[in-house]
Amino acid sequence: MVVTKDKFITIEYTFSAPDGTLLGSSDYSGPFTFRQGYGDVVPGLDTEVDGANVGDELEFVIQPEDGYGVRDEDKVRRLPKDALPLGREPEPGLRVNVGGTIMIITDVTDDEIVLDANHPLAGIPLHFSVRITDIADEAPEAQGGCGCGGTCSCN
């Protein structure tokens, strides 16, 4: 069977930043299943596995525009340190909801907080190594019936 739209694809994978920093791996999270062509994964992954067969091993780089997007500096805000009622001391890495937008605190000084609404992987080319382990017409039941761990809508 060949990877085409509507098929449920299971992959073993690793992906890393250009400097070799490991960003994700099925060695830690287990094989990943998604429905091809439905936006369950970044567009570049859908494109790269299209037409592959079970057992194929693929190496490719997904550019930011086909991954998590290009960084947008307009999504970075500087606010006075006391502008957000957090209920705790702000610290880098803390996710906060600002007017319905999830932002990450990236820096804290004595006077201000720097918040970033970009995806943490925005602007980073993603180096993938993928092995197609299964292609199916229906979602595997062990994955919650939707092929992606039950965390998305694959209708």
What distinguishing features does this structure have?
Thrombin, subunit H, 7% helix, 4-stranded antiparallel β-sheet, 5-stranded antiparallel β-sheet, elongated, disordered C terminus, 9 strands, Chitinase A, domain 3, 155 residues
In summary, what is this structure?
This protein has 155 residues and is mainly β. It contains two helices and nine strands. It has two domains: 8-68 and 121-143, Chitinase A, domain 3, CATH 3.10.50; 73-116, Thrombin, subunit H (Beta Barrel).
How would you describe what is shown here?
The chain is mostly beta strands and 155 residues long. It has 2 domains: 8-68 and 121-143, Chitinase A, domain 3 (Roll), CATH 3.10.50.40; 73-116, Thrombin, subunit H (Beta Barrel). The chain contains 2 helices and 9 strands, in the order ββαβαββββββ. The chain has helices at residues 26-29, 43-49, and strands at 8-16, 22-25, 32-35, 57-62, 76-80, 95-98, 101-108, 112-116, 126-136. Strands 1, 2, 3, 4 and 9 form a 5-stranded antiparallel beta sheet that branches. Residues 143-155 have low confidence and may be disordered.
Largest sheet: 5 strands, antiparallel
Q: If helices are DSSP runs of H or I spanning 4 or more residues, what is the number of helices? A: 2
Query: What characteristic shape results from the CA principal axes?
Result: elongated
CATH class of the largest domain: Alpha Beta
As an assembly, this protein is single chain
CATH topology of the largest domain: Chitinase A, domain 3
Which blocks of ≥5 consecutive residues have pLDDT under 50?
143-155
The topology string of helices and strands comes to EEHEHEEEEEE
Distance between the termini: 21 Å
Number of domains: 2
Helices and strands: which structural class?
Answer: mainly beta
> Would you report the number of β strands?
9
Q: What percent of residues adopt helix (DSSP H or I)?
A: under 10%
Q: What percent strand?
A: 35-45%
Question: What's the architecture of the largest domain, going by CATH?
Answer: Roll
Q: What would you report as the Rg, rounded to the nearest angstrom?
A: 19 Å
- Please tell me the overall pLDDT: 89
